[in-house]
Amino acid sequence: MKNAMSVKGALLKSTLLAGAVAASTVAARGEDVTIGVLVPLTGELGEFGKIVAGAVELGVDEVNAAGGTKCGNLRTVVADTGGNPEVGIREATKMIESEGAVAVVGPTSGVMVALVDLAKRTKTVIMSPYAGTITLNELGGDYVYRTVSSDLGDGAASGLWLTDKGYKRVAFMVQNEESTISPAQVAREKLESSGIELTDYVVYNPGQPSYQAELVSVLAHEPDAIYLAGGQESGVTVIKEATAGGFEGEWLFTADLAVPEIFDAVGAQYLNDRAYVEFADSDSSLPEYKAFEALYKEKTGGEPGPFASNSFDMVNLIALSLESADSCTGEGINGVIRAVAEGGEAVGSFAAGKEAIAAGKDINYEGASGPLTMDESGTPDGAYSIQQARDGKWENVKFYPASAFE
Amino acid sequence: MTLLAQYALTGVVTGCFLILATIGFSLTRQVEGFLNIAHAELLGVSAFITWGLNAGAGWPIVPAAIVAIVATAFIGLFIGRVVYDPIRRLGPAVVLISSVGVAYVIAGLMHAIIGTGIRTLDVPLATTFKFFGLRITNYQMIVVGLAALTGISLALFLNRTRTGLAIRAMSTNPELAASRGIDVRQTSRATWLLSSGLAGLAGVMLALIATLSTDIAFHQILQILAVAILAGLGSLYSVIVAGLIVGIAMDVSVFWIPAGYRPLIAFAVVIIALVVRPEGLSMKSSS
Predict the structure, then answer these.
(1) Which of A2, A209, A232 has its CB closest to that of B209?
(2) Cβ distance of A212 and B251 shorter than 8 Å
């Protein structure tokens, strides 16, 4: 139902955008390099899409301000997917075939998976700053990249935190979806290898008015903590029902619940000091991140939102790849993109990288979101934050850098 | 043993919610002669009106709920008159498909007005009571109490009042009822008000126990259908039995089978019951 609605919105939006795109094509110079920005601007993930599109534009402006790539200045064409894979394929095809895009950046998990064939067939690089889906662990690596870690990393971080906290008995409540089950499995393995007792492992279906039946056994076993991997709708009900049912232990939530609205919906007094949340995060202590944050504030006046740094990194990776590749094509980018992000002189910006490449050096782009060395599937290692509920707000208590999982 | 009893008790609550959600749906099916898929969306309409008045405008829950139920009853009547009445002569299949369209329109409007994200009522966290080691919350007791009250009131209404008797006559044989001087149009209106008002009541319960999003109401339609099919087409009392059977079977199954299969259990029960009794619990065949 939701999809059907957002398709309609997306169609309207894409019609409008097509007009804008046509106009900008006329204005574009012949030697420009086109990057497609394929994001959800409407629908459930619309807020994220806007952040990504904004950060990509920021990156493009920086690259062009530094004189552009050797293939010319970057220009973007933007389209809204509404999070819908079919719309994504249609818009990406248009970007590649009509606009000559050498790379398409910004798709969400479902769209990204749908675009794998198209990317390989048309030799166009696709890259996502937030698609954590483990399907890409299998499909990614050739023309398909991301600047965010896989969902499995979230599971590893959760497992590490539950172990570090010294809980003896933990229950799992996991929403019946691939994106929640696969990290939960990783966390579960970590717990079992650490000798922590798993009192219950409940996989539940979302969309129910109540989760009392799912909680009967969980509450009866009185665990020290409940790991809740679920969406906001189911998560809030589960938290309230467990609390009303007498659960007095602590919580670890996954990223969907890392929002301030949770405190209003549940009641801050039931979460304060006993609820934690885990999510993929940039290492804010890195100089590259600090530089990005300062730039972002200067240009936009606001704080960088979720995945803004990952989005900024996509542009720099592509621009530096164009700079060092033999050809100004997707194939050229695909050939060198890994090398740009690993081994060689560390550079933190496009300008510094361009200079080093011009001097004949091998470069290692250190991203604003952290190191971008990619594994076989084109996925970097991730860093994770744990926040605690305090006075009705989420506050940082622990940061796991990528090195914590080696 | 206590654990199993706890599952059964939770199942009774689930069943009572299903009864509230299904009884209006079955009433429409009997009198108007089609499966109104948009019925589930009316739960959402009522839930969000309750939310808007309670959490938005700061009303206490009871007046907010009453206004929501009455408003939903009239919205249901309006849809019945404007959408379904003109096309009823085209047959139940056309009306059924149209009701899917109505569900989409209502969902789209709610999406446009309410937006994305989650909503909760401004009510205190449930209080848990313990009887013989079994837990039940005050909100769960309200659901059970209202389901019982609804069943009794509806029985009295259908058996003791003129409109109630007219509704029963219409549901048994519309032509005969019309020929015996029952005002078909007025009875139809009364049915729409009643069934939509019942959807409104279920919607208030949904708002009370669940976390609201614009999708949650529609998610209930499959279980509503399961209960309605199990109940059969004849009697409203069988809805009560069917709701309890489906609710208890789903929740007790969690004792042995992973919770992810709960919805499947609902339909397994329906399939098994229909193999044994194809006419449903009510033992009456379709009119």
Answers:
(1) A209
(2) yes
- Chain A residues whose beta carbon lies within 8 Å of the beta carbon of residue B263: 205
Cβ contact, residue pair A205, B111, below 8 Å:
no
pTM of the model: 0.82
**B239 neighbors B16 (Cβ within 8 angstroms):** no
Cross-chain Cβ contact A241/B126 below 8 Å: yes
Whether B218 contacts B267, CB under 8 Å: no
Residue A212 contacts B where some CB pair is shorter than 8 Å: yes
Looking at every residue in chain A, the average pLDDT score rounds to 89
Question: Running DSSP on this structure, what letter comes out for residue A217?
Answer: H
Contacts of B10 in chain A (CB under 8 A): 212-213, 216
pLDDT digits (tens, 9 = 90+) for B121-162: 999 999 999 998 899 999 999 999 999 999 999 999 999 999
Q: How many CB atoms lie within 10 A of CB A287?
A: 10
At A252, which helix (H) or strand (E)? strand A250-253
Give Cα A115 distance to the centre of its chain: 17
Which residues of chain A are within 8 Å of residue B17 when distances are taken between CB atoms? Answer: 209-210
Residue type for B284, please?
A: K
Q: Are strands A33-39 and A103-105 parallel, antiparallel or unpaired?
A: parallel
Mutate to test the interface with B, among A45, A47, A50, A233 (most CBs of B within 10 A): A233
Residue ranges and CATH numbers for the domains of chain A are 2-148+307-371 (3.40.50.2300), 152-282+383-405 (3.40.50.2300)
Q: In whole angstroms, what is the distance from residue A210 CA to residue B254 CA?
A: 14
**Residue that the structure tokens 């009705």 belong to:** A392
- Asked if B211 and A256 touch (Cβ cutoff 8 Å), the reply is no
DSSP B232: -
Alpha-carbon distance of B258 to A204, in angstroms, equals: 8
Q: Which two tokens stand for residue B265?
A: 């259990």
In the predicted structure, residue B47 carries a pLDDT above the cut 50: yes
Contact call for B117 and A261, based on CB within 8 A: yes
Q: How far is B79 from chain A (nearest CA, A)?
A: 20
A203 min Cα distance to partner chain B (Å) = 5
Q: Which two tokens stand for residue B123?
A: 């009510």
Interface predicted TM-score of the whole assembly (ipTM), two decimals? 0.91
CA nearest to B85, candidates B187, B223, B231: B187
Q: Which pLDDT tens digit goes with each residue over A2-46?
A: 333 333 344 444 444 444 444 444 344 457 999 999 999 877 677
CA distance A201 to chain B (A): 9
CA distance B118 to chain A (A): 6
CA separation for the pair B141, B134 (Å, rounded): 13
Amino acid at position A250, single letter: E
Task: Report CA B106 to chain centroid distance, whole Å.
Answer: 17
